[in-house]
Design goal:
Number of helices: 9
Helix content: 40-55%
Number of strands: 8
Organism: Athelia psychrophila
Protein name: NAD(P)-binding protein
Pfam family, one: adh_short
CATH architecture: 3-Layer(aba) Sandwich
CATH superfamily: NAD(P)-binding Rossmann-like Domain
Shape: globular
Keywords: NADP, Oxidoreductase
Number of domains: 1
Structural class: alpha/beta
InterPro entries: NAD(P)-bd_dom_sf, Sc_DH/Rdtase_CS, SDR_fam
Oligomer: single chain
Length: 261
């Protein structure tokens, strides 16, 4: 099974902080010397990362906000492929997490809910759809290609405190399994990563960072374990405590879905 070491050009969507940034820099450091394109909303952060790590000449940045409409996402994909026609790997790390309390339905901001759904699921599926013709063609020419959705351990166990977030991750997980089966006869591979609670800025806007920092998995430890799975070419990569949920709720599911083809 091919893995991340076979990648020549990697796009990391949501790479200005946290998991996305850490994976992007780990991939940049691979002995195979791939080109790495980091994408995110904040240009200042993109500039800082490139300034600190761009000496190799293989690191580039693209400002993008995935929380937009289909036409804008299509233009983003077209622009990326026009500049990087050998792009073979896309990691989807962009995500937002919000608390919603449905016992007080008047407090639920449906605009925030729709934004979370679009960022975590709809926009990712849309971009995958636009990238796939390129990836399928490139793979048919002999270059293994990879789509790496980053879901969550919460895709397997619904979190009542962030119900919409869990639903978006469960949807992306389900889609990833189905997509992987559909692409069985191509050399385009889906490698889904299931993070546990990981050191991240995602919790800052909820005011839970101090509490969660006492129990979360360090970013360095997460990155090491995730990269091992990506190097092996694992189709599903549960990390840390997510392994327990995966063993209990997901083990064997891929084989069952394959029988439904």
């Amino acid at each position: 099974m091919p893995g991340i070491n076979d990648s020549k050009c990697v796009l990391v969507v949501g790479a200005t902080s946290g998991i996305g940034k850490s994976l992007a820099l780990a991939i940049l450091a691979l002995a195979s010397r791939p080109t790495v394109i980091i994408a995110g909303r904040r240009q200042d952060r993109l500039d800082d990362i490139i300034s600190a790590h761009g000496n190799a000449g293989r690191l580039e940045g693209i400002q993008m906000d995935v929380d937009t409409d289909r036409a804008a996402l299509k233009k983003i994909v077209e622009d990326v492929l026009a500049k990087h026609p050998k792009l073979d790997t896309i990691i989807f790390s962009a995500g937002i997490q919000r608390r919603f309390e449905f016992t007080s339905p008047e407090s639920v901001d449906l605009d925030h809910l729709a934004s979370e759904l679009n960022t975590n699921y709809t926009a990712i599926v849309t971009m995958i759809t636009y990238f796939l013709p390129h990836l399928i063609k490139l793979a048919a020419g002999g270059q293994p290609c990879f789509i790496v959705p980053i879901t969550s351990g919460l895709a397997m166990i619904p979190p009542p405190w962030v119900p919409n977030y869990g639903a978006t991750k469960a949807a992306l997980h389900s889609f990833s399994v189905s997509l992987s089966v559909q692409l069985t006869d191509t050399d385009v591979h889906i490698m889904e990563i299931f993070p546990p609670l990981v050191e991240s800025e995602i919790h800052d806007q909820q005011g839970t960072t101090e509490k969660l920092s006492k129990i979360w998995m360090s970013l360095a430890e997460f990155t090491r374990e995730a990269m091992e799975g990506l190097a092996r070419g694992d189709m599903q990569i549960p990390v840390g405590r997510s392994k327990e949920s995966f063993e209990r709720f997901e083990k064997g599911k891929m084989e069952i879905v394959n029988m439904l083809r």
